């Protein structure tokens, strides 16, 4: 890993505050791994053998409930740290991460985490900030599923995805990774039929474009009004 260009990770949230020579030292302990589309990076309840930073591609993280239902927890975008089970006091992964596009990640052994954070306290504080943001996002989603009608939940979900990984195109803002209507259903606690009905109605109004595993927000402002219940 010494030959890896440090500019690939310079400026990423996990490494904020680290000097160039510290980045080089961390890279020497890392391994770059490719994950073709559809490949699992890790599985729910498996031993947390490593933690990761995504360099390229996108991942879907989901969790199976005790009754066998699949819930999409979040999508991982380039630059994010993930799978840091030891940072939250776990020895097993709480969910499953699968590549939704060909992806590349750096990985470090979980056993190295205590030593690395002792040598680089910034890693711990940066990870804590990331985990805190994700917990806040999960709290927001729980409140939405408990209090909002489904159309507003879907609007909120699409707006968050566009903010996380939106790319401006001629027709609006496209969510820049493969995402299905089933994914949206699992993110919002509803059914595929309901999401399909909502998106079809929004397409008829010119608010979105929905192709195979691709969603474009044509009128984000109008979706924002729908999410807030004023549209």
From TrEMBL:
Gene3D superfamilies: Jelly Rolls, Winged helix-like DNA-binding domain superfamily/Winged helix DNA-binding domain. Residues 14-101 form the Cyclic nucleotide-binding domain. InterPro entries: cNMP-bd_dom (IPR000595), cNMP-bd_dom_sf (IPR018490), Env_Response_Regulators (IPR050397), HTH_CRP (IPR012318), RmlC-like_jellyroll (IPR014710), WH-like_DNA-bd_sf (IPR036388), WH_DNA-bd_sf (IPR036390). GO terms for cellular component: cytosol. The keyword RNA-binding does not apply. GO terms for molecular function: DNA binding; DNA-binding transcription factor activity. Signal peptide: none annotated. Pfam families: cNMP_binding (PF00027), HTH_Crp_2 (PF13545). Keywords: DNA-binding, Transcription, Transcription regulation. Residues 148-221 form the HTH crp-type domain. This is Crp/Fnr family transcriptional regulator.
